[in-house]
Amino acid sequence: MNLSPEERTLLDRPLVAQLATIMPDGSPHLTTIWHHRDEDTIRMVCDATALKARNIRRDPRVAINVVDIDNPYRYIQIRGTAELVADSVKARDELRALANRYMGSVGDAFVDMYPADVDQITIIIHPKRVSLTVSV
């Protein structure tokens, strides 16, 4: 699915996303997470043993929500499927880029403090349905 220019503009801002995954009992699990857009996919990084990663392995259906902090009635909702990429080196590089995006000049120091032996993975979300809401 192709994202519109307005959807891309909102996703390109350093706004956190809320990622919803599905628990084994069918209930939702919600996590706030850094993200960035890569063409028409959304990329995130997490620990390979994180609950969100375990949920995605079992059921790849996900949703994310990103709210415009300048107008909380402007937000994008994306439903789709998630792919997990198990390459710790690339995931750490991606985490460094995310840390710099969200933390600026202290991003590198943040990543350097993160234990190097933690198995990290990249989450790639492939949108199936996108809704940009602007009200009030």
What are the main properties of this structure?
136 residues; seven-stranded antiparallel sheet; 4 helices; 28% helix
Structural class by helix and strand composition: alpha+beta
- End-to-end distance: 28 Å
**Oligomeric grouping of the chains:** single chain
Strand content: 35-45%
Q: Which of globular, elongated, flat, extended, rod-shaped describes the shape?
A: globular
Task: Estimate the mean pLDDT confidence.
Answer: 94
Radius of gyration, rounded?
15 Å
Helix content: 25-40%
Which residues form runs of ≥5 with pLDDT under 50?
none
Outline the biggest β-sheet.
Answer: 7 strands, antiparallel
Number of strands: 7
User: Number of DSSP helices?
Assistant: 4
Order of H and E elements: HEEEEHEEHHE
What strand line-up does the widest sheet have?
Answer: 2-1-5-6-7-4-3
Description:
The chain has 136 residues and is α+β, with helices and mostly antiparallel strands. Helices cover 28% and strands 41% of the residues. The chain is built from 4 helices and 7 strands, in the order αββββαββααβ. Strands 2-1-5-6-7-4-3 form a 7-stranded antiparallel sheet. Helix 3 packs across helix 4. The chain starts with a helix and ends with a strand. The relative contact order is 0.24.
